[in-house]
Amino acid sequence: MSAGADLLRIENLQVSFSIMGGQIEAVRGASLRILPGKVTALVGESGSGKSVIGQTIMGIQPRTARVNGRVLFSDPLNPTNAPSTSCNWSPTASPCAPFAATASA
Questions:
Q1: Which of 36-40, 82-86, 97-101 has the highest mean pLDDT?
Q2: SS3 for 56?
Q3: Verdict on whether the full-model pTM lies above 0.90
Q4: Which end of the chain is more exposed for a tag (fewer CB within 10 A), N or C?
Q5: What is the mean pLDDT of residues 1-18?
């Protein structure tokens, strides 16, 4: 995937949750691009990880989540900003969502 014109890009997103007795893999290797000015839909069967992907983008995963991959956002209102970098999210780290800093301020 090229980074040139992407508004939002997700690369190899993997999300799992710790539960008693092991891990549940909610998202395995998801990659997608959202281009500026385009209508985009995320569709899939019930339980396929759509909401988990959305929560990961916004940085609102529960503490039991383990996230690996890259979430890159290019702010069209501030084109001089480089895209957000890789998201190696953990409950003790700051959120990886590009919106998290402004949403909590």
A1: 36-40
A2: helix
A3: no
A4: C
A5: 82
> If you count them, how many residues does the chain have?
105
CA angle 79, 81, 83 (to 5 degrees): 100
- Report which of 30, 67, 66 is spatially closest to residue 48, judged by C-alpha positions: 30
Residue 72 exposed, middle or buried by CB count within 10 Å (0-12, 13-18, 19+): buried
Q: Which residues have C-beta within 8 Å of that of residue 71, sequence separation ≥ 6?
A: 8, 9, 10, 13, 56, 57, 84, 86, 87, 96, 97, 98
C-alpha to C-alpha distance for 51 and 32, rounded to whole angstroms: 15
**Backbone phi, psi, residue 68, to 5°:** -135, 155
Query: First vs last Cα of the chain: how many Å apart?
Result: 32
